[in-house]
């Protein structure tokens, strides 16, 4: 499997795990707590495979940046989180940074 695919799986797993944290109610609810632990386990496992060829700093920038954008979207859609103009602008800048790395940076070449 392509290491970029592993990075994508790591991002999705981390978003699922982070989104389940609120539902776990401080790890007092079993189902969401299991989802958190398994999600983070899958995320770090797949991230470790992605790091075979993707530089650590680049992989982490993409992973964390995409995760922030996606978790914010999930929280907005499913948890009723409100995003004001400043939050949307900041999220837009993070997304722009991830796109710049992926499109223009030679450091991310693998």
Automatic annotation (TrEMBL):
Keyword Iron-sulfur: no
Keyword Membrane attributed: yes
Intracellular or extracellular location(s): Cell membrane
Coiled coil feature spans: none
Source organism, top-level taxon: Bacteria
GO BP field: glycine betaine transport; xenobiotic detoxification by transmembrane export across the plasma membrane
A Pfam family that the UniProt record links to this protein: Multi_Drug_Res
UniProt xrefs under Gene3D superfamilies: 1.10.3730.20
Signal peptide feature range: none
GO cellular component: plasma membrane
InterPro entries referenced in this protein's UniProt entry, alphabetically: EmrE-like (IPR037185), Small_drug/metabolite_transptr (IPR000390), Small_multidrug_res (IPR045324)
Spans traversing the lipid bilayer: 33-51, 58-79, 85-104
Membrane topology: Multi-pass membrane protein
Alphabetized GO MF terms: amino-acid betaine transmembrane transporter activity; antiporter activity; choline transmembrane transporter activity
Assigned keywords, A-Z: Cell membrane, Membrane, Transmembrane, Transmembrane helix, Transport
Family: Belongs to the drug/metabolite transporter (DMT) superfamily. Small multidrug resistance (SMR) (TC 2.A.7.1) family.
Name this protein carries in UniProt: Ethidium bromide-methyl viologen resistance protein EmrE
Organism of this sequence: Pseudomyxococcus hansupus
